Amino acid sequence: MNKIFAISNVVLLEMYRRKDFYVLFIVTALITAVMGSVTFFKDPEIVRYLKAICLFLIWASSLFIAIGATARQIPAERESRTIFPLMAKPVSRAQILLGKFLGCWLACGAALVIFYAFFGCVTATREHQWPLANYFQAWALHWAMLGIVVAMTLLGSLVLTAVSSNITITFIATVAILLVGRHLHQVALSMAEPSATIIAGLYYVIPHLELFDLRERIVQNWPVVPWGIWFIALVYAAAYTALLLLLSWLVFRKKALQ
Amino acid sequence: MKTTRPFVLLLLLLALFCSGLAARIDRWFMGWPGNHEDSLNPLDVMIGDGQKLFAGSFYREADVYYHSGFYPTIFDNRGAFETPHMAEDTGAVASHNQGGEGGFLGPPLDFIDAFNRHFTPNRHSHLDEGGPTEDLSKSREVREILPWLKISSELDPENVQTYIVTAYWLRTRMNKVAEGEQVLREGLRHNPDDPQLLYELGRVYYENYHDLQRARNIWESALRGWGKQMAGKPDSDKFNFDNKFIVEQLQTHLALLEEAAGNFDAAIAHWKQAKSVSPDPGGLQKHIDDLRQKFVTQTNAPAATSH
Amino acid sequence: MSVILKTEKLRVEFTSREFRQKTKVALSSLDLEVNAGEIFGFLGPNGAGKTTTINVLLGFVTPKSGAAYLFGIDVRQPIARQRIGYLPEMTYYYKFLTAEELLRFYAKIFGLARAEADKRIDRLLKLVDLEQARRRPLKTYSKGMQQRVGLAQALINDPDLLVLDEPTSGLDPLGRMKVREIIQRVKNEGKTVFFSSHELGEVETVCDRVVIINDGELKAEGRVADLVQKYQTSSLEQVFLKVVGYETSGARAPAATRTPIA
């Protein structure tokens, strides 16, 4: 376990020293600040549009961070040949993979804490309330979803040659699942065979990332999701993440490094 | 130097050709209808009429907010949401909705769908009725629809419904009557003599300022505006559902105004006009009869006491 | 004497698009044994299979057939690398890390306790003359400094077997001297060194035994003096040329194999 943490630590240091996160955070903060400076009909308490914009920016940024950072990990190690001195140490490929995953995922979690704290401060200035339980649920589910996305991207980085292809495909797949994933079964029912079976099959196979999107509930001030249901969603995320990591290991263990 | 000279000459020749072509095309471009160059709005220049698509989208978004996010997607049955409820509730817009509001999702298709519904808004509610918690003390949160309506009206100033809906909620829930009136007047700047906007403006004067004379003038002006709009149009257009609706609303409100002012003849005249376009002529006829009876009673009452 | 490193009928094949999907045999039934405490030279011309052999020993490449062992443990198991240090030919390390951070990272991989790691890091940075630059990011290091960091990370776990791939490549005379000193020090401590090099003069000076491979096959093996005698030549360079099939009739050797002036 120490080896996994050591590798994840290096990933965290890299992300800390790269400027990506800071740029995205500043852009998010700036856009939110500009939108927040607008008053509609002299009513300073209108806040939901601002929450929606801020959360959208947070989600977009988090996807850029998660996918962008993870897609580079193993290809960059191979390209820069830093993987060789690492592999020459008593560390298995599974440990390297887990270390990379953990580093990227922890970095996403830390970034999300800062983003959500910012979000909470912005909304508190207008709503004068701080629904911590709701924010905690949203943050945890968002972070869990990013675990799936990071694992997916890692798998992509081992299967696809080019980093840019991996980033593009993973990003499109993620956004597509978020937008239409929940409706695929409905679409399948209105189609003829064999398309109906294919779409229905896809519906049951894909990780339903939309489960983890609590934006609408947060924006519209809905009560918390029942804690048992919330926990089941986290378990679902853990299961899918584990499956994707297993697939990644199966690909990575046989891959020639040279 | 010798090898670069032909390239330089070629570049100069190309530049000359492009300038000549630009000068030739510019005259044609000035006369082209799609030319938005004289507009200062960057959106006008960039996407032109495409703004209307976005405007529609933002208008819908306001209704999504009105329902606290519980709203049908393009995959769901939208029969009960053809006319946004935030607009329907103003009483100024004809409703084309069919079916129940809360059942557009239907039963869950599978276990994933059933599980999914815990993570999204899953109950029908209106913001002005307290939202999902049905806490009436929070009915002022209907203000959250306003930014989307504002943006929608900026992008499509010719959509009068946006102004009507905005003004209604401003004056009835936000207690911002002046702002509501301003919105309607802005709508009238972009859509002069529009009967729907004038109707709503009349309501401002009638319901909020209690200025019956001004309200009457505005509503009569609205009827004249409707007449002008319908001039030259076939009867099928004149008496379609939406056009009949606005006439019925105007005539009904004028009738009520005249009743409040004690002008029963004028009131009955307006009720008769309303009856001719109403989906419930029987009900209105009964009201006319009651009004006549009331008028007769009132007229005879002083004579009875003098005896 | 115990055998530290062993390969048994090691065969490695690569399928290359370059050769139109033909299979290229990089190593053909290679048998090697390195004993504890010796300095072992692994020689061969470019493309002979030296780096491939090292890659198999370090687990980068899976052999088609045969086996390789380090300290009696199959090289496919990560624990086989617990007691080795590896210096690659080209030094590539995380540019965003400092020398100190890099060594600490590798120390954690080896499972060293914090206090012990700190002591070793200080000692190694002093040994390779990088104490002053320990907190600078590696991207600011010169090639010589990076090579020295490479040496330090190869020694962080106090290895019993040091695997060096062209350790003096690209180094100035001072750098080469440093490497020779370290090799000698390691030998004096009873450790084993396995290194491949084109610097035959250095090999001749430090190595106890050498192996010459060519086209993936073992061509010659033994002590330097024994090989010189066996092939009736006057130097290891002459032995090398003879073994790889280059006829020398007293003519000057081509530039690629000419022994540089140390």
Largest sheet of chain B: none
* Helical run tally of chain B: 14
How many H/I helical runs of chain A? 11
Low-pLDDT stretches of chain A are: none
Helix content of chain B: 55-70%
Oligomer: heterotrimer
Uncertain segments of chain B are none
Mass-distribution shape of chain B = extended
Question: How much is the radius of gyration of chain B in Å?
Answer: 27 Å
Integer tally of domains of chain A: 1
Q: Of all protein chain pairs, which has the greatest interface, and how many residues does each chain bring to it?
A: A-B, 36 and 29 residues
Question: Alpha-carbon distance between the termini of chain A?
Answer: 27 Å
**Portion in helices of chain A:** over 70%
Strand content of chain B: under 5%
Order of helices and strands of chain B: HHHHHHHHHHHHHH
Keywords for this structure?
heterotrimer, A: 258 residues, mainly alpha, 11 helices, 78% helix, globular, B: 307 residues, 63% helix
Summarize the structure.
The complex is a heterotrimer of chains A (258), B (307) and C (262). By secondary structure, chain A is mainly alpha-helical.
